[in-house]
Amino acid sequence: MTRSESQSPQPHRASPPTSIPASTPASTPATTTLVVGSETVLVTRKSIKNMYLRIRPDDGTITVSAPRRTTNAAIRDFVCAHESWIGSTRKRMTQLHRENEVAAFGHETDETLTPRELFRRKWTPERLQAARGYLQARVPEMIKRWGRVLGRTPTSVTYRAMTSRWGSCTPATGRMRLNLELAEMPEALIEYVVVHEMVHLWEPKHGAGFHNRMSAVMPDWRERARTLNSLWRYA
Ligand SMILES: [Zn+2]
After folding, report:
1. What's the 209 CA to ligand 1 centre distance in angstroms?
2. Which of 120, 162, 167, 169 is 20 to 30 Å apart from 205, CA to CA?
3. Where does this protein have compositionally biased stretches of type Low complexity (predicted)?
4. Which residues surround ligand 1, an ion (CB under 5 A)?
5. Cα-to-centroid distance, 20 and ligand 1 (Å)
């Protein structure tokens, strides 16, 4: 990732940022922490209308995006109200991680790890290499296959550890970036992100044109997006 790339115009993103309006201001929102029970929640206040709750798949951290004037008390209530959702989502993410690690890494995660510890895993050089190898062995073939359907292919694909998006694409340059976390997701969801980003080569925004094109080539894309989003957010 070069400096100029990281400063390129805001790229279009796969889920979950599909839920973020394209008009989100570029100003950097302030992130603070808020202790709720035994959890430290990352809170970002920005110009949005609703509160969003997400579980970061890399470490299980709870993050909340909230409208600027939301009080800490309201955020605490919001998090507490979704306690059971947080528990079931973490459990589901843990199961997915375990199932897909067998495929991605050829071995099971240490069963003695608690879900919390599992999410706290860092990107070790070994894990990075395994995830990259897994995606590199599958994604180019997917792009080739879907390129025949869509008529356009990205000019380059890079794999990176990202914490807030599954993928992104800059239509002007044709560059696609995919989150290494995808290596631990089911193949149908990897394929959804790849196709989503490739459709951006035709349709930069998430408007009707984008939706029509997605539905034409992947009729169940909304279901796949829902599954992917269910791992990240609760609105
Ligand atoms: Zn998108």
Report:
1. 12
2. 162
3. 15-32
4. 12
5. 10
